[in-house]
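#dry-run=false #mode=assembly
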Amino acid sequence: MPAQRLIIKFGGTSVGSGQAIASAAGIAADLRRAGHPVAVVTSAMSGVTDALLGGAAAAVRGERVHVRELAETLRAKHHAAATELGLTGGERAAVLDPMDGRLTEFAMLCDALAVLGDASPRALDAVSSLGERMSVHLLAGALRMLGTPAVPIDAAEIVRTDNAFQAAAPDALETRRLTQETLGPLLADGIVPVVTGFIGATVDGVVTTLGRGGSDYSAAIIGAALDVDEVWIYTDVDGVMTADPRVVTDVRTLDTLSYREMSELAYFGAKVLHPKTVLPALERGIPIRIRNTFNPAHPGTLVVGKSDDPVAVFKGVTAIRHQSLVTIEGRGMLGVPGIAARAFGSVARTGTSVSMISQASSEQSICFLVPQDASSTVLDTLRREFEHELARRDIESIWSLDEAVIVTVVGAAIKQTPGVAGRVFGALGLMGINVIAIAMGSSECSISLVVEAKDAEQTVKCLHTLI
Ligand code: ASP
Ligand code: MG
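#status=ok
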């Protein structure tokens, strides 16, 4: 393989223990030795972000003992990894000291939250960013142990975002400038930068996060900023599978996918990649490879502009559970403009995102899916918005069906292949599965259907037989 500039990103399980970190470092060191300039992006050790946020919640409830215990558990976990890696002397201090500093910060932040009895999104980002700001030291230390020069980099210095805490959006231009300025000279000197995933900072230097699971997105953002040749996402499975192996037994790992297929799969529940990861890669045409830290010989799944897989119409089936199907229904809606706009406007103001929409052409009902935990807020808001229409009976009812599941089949060829819908519904009909709602956008490469929770598993299995 000719020398390629690479970003390689390790997920939580890939840095989940000293042993895993050693394997991850080995992969990075081998690539560099083979002549590839490599920058590394890392997640927090698995479970750490959840624990940190759990600590913040406990602090808000005033449970200071619980917070102290958590801090101790986190300290022990990171120290154990350092020991497992065999870090000693000055190298051990270089890794442990900054991590202990972050844990002190955690305790102080939690004290503040306990006093306030409340946690703002900004405070939660300060807390949840600490996991990556610890793991980065372990991974850089592990690389140095292998004789590979490596330095930890806090992405707050290179990823510039807006101030939408907990779901911050990157400023591509500023990020490009900062990233090239900081990482460029290191790469030129053969030093491996190990960068925190998940986080960034505002123009004022306040730490933000890109949203849960956002380290994948970080890797693509940084990769785009550096114009790398490829972004490799190391996880704990061989690649993107045709379905969830816990549901379907004969799943396969896909060789290639298009960006479009990948983002549909990720958006509709395939957990392997953060849905936004594809965007920066697509913009600059950078291929993404999803690979297994624990099975490095496997080539993984390649995500590119056009997947050269001419035969497969269907690539994968996913399911998102715990959804509510909200329906607005009434004969008086016929031909009345603006009902949909008002409905979605008021839902948006609750901060809820709608995952799927379908409207019958008779215009007598609109239905859409929202996460179930938002459904009562959404219903309240809609009933207030349409108070007059409800009183006049133009709208007869606004109601929701809970425990709905969206099952999606994805494949770029769906839109140009005749008879696809027939195959999908034919297969489901044979199994006697009742489909509650359907959506297939004209430009989309997927078909989504809503079924009741009791039918979800069967639906996934049934549609997987079409792949
Ligand atoms: N550590 C963060 C999370 O658990 C980001 C990531 O792992 O991608 O959400
Ligand atoms: Mg992840």
